[in-house]
Design goal:
By secondary structure, the protein is mainly alpha-helical. Helices cover 51% and strands 4% of the residues. It has one domain (17-200): dinb family like domain (Four Helix Bundle (Hemerythrin (Met), subunit A), Up-down Bundle), CATH 1.20.120. It is built from 7 helices and 2 strands, in the order ααααββααα. The chain is globular.
Length: 206
């Protein structure tokens, strides 16, 4: 079985992230996991920039997305799973996260998945494109959680670039009726890349 776990940063790792979208996805998942694990208990009921989620529900959403990614890798229907794992007690979140990450690693270990057609909620796309979409989802939601809890993640420029490109392709400039994103927010052209990404997704950078 091919090992797609993350490795320490290096030129080789950067190249692998570009050539193999699974590496970028796992790096985005890892950053989201570190950010969520650093949330303090008193912060779970707080709001996030993603207005439909509190911090707790956002954490549950990320677990649910992991489970959907794993199911997609196994050829299943992601719509059969809920969008939020809201049955988890705060003390159960980390174990559920770790188990879901292992499921993703196993389900996506075969590189042929990148050429297979996967069905996502918005349509059918090749596995490589699905990995980029989910990379962007984890990156944006990591920003949501970090902003809500006063954290400053160490953003990977390549992952932010991958995410921005995916969101620019997937989200129209104009009305976004039916999409879980507000209208794009104006930011300076020289704003940090992460600010430009989240602004395109309807968030207001701080």
């Amino acid at each position: 079985m091919t090992n797609i776990r993350n490795t320490p940063s290096s030129t080789a790792t950067t190249s692998a992230t570009t050539d193999d979208p699974r590496q970028g996805l796992l790096k985005a998942i890892a950053l989201a996991g570190r950010t969520a694990a650093a949330v303090r208990p008193e912060q779970f009921d707080g709001p996030t920039p993603c207005t439909e989620f509190t911090v707790r529900r956002l954490a549950g959403h990320l677990v649910a997305v992991l489970r959907r990614i794993a199911l997609a890798g196994r050829g299943g229907d992601v719509m059969s799973l809920p969008t939020v794992a809201d049955d988890l007690a705060d003390s159960e979140w980390q174990a559920a996260w770790d188990a879901a990450v292992r499921e993703v690693e196993a389900a996506w270990a075969d590189p042929t998945i990148l050429g297979r057609t996967l069905t996502l909620p918005f349509g059918s796309v090749p596995g490589a494109a699905a990995a980029a979409v989910w990379t962007s989802e984890f990156t944006v939601h990591t920003w949501d959680m970090a902003t809500a809890t006063g954290q400053r993640p160490d953003w990977d420029p390549e992952l932010v670039a991958i995410s921005y490109a995916a969101m620019k392709r997937g989200l129209p400039i104009g009305p976004r009726d039916g999409a879980p994103f507000g209208a794009a927010v104006d930011v300076d052209a020289d704003a940090p890349a992460i600010d430009r990404l989240v602004a395109w997704c309807g968030r207001k950078p701080q």
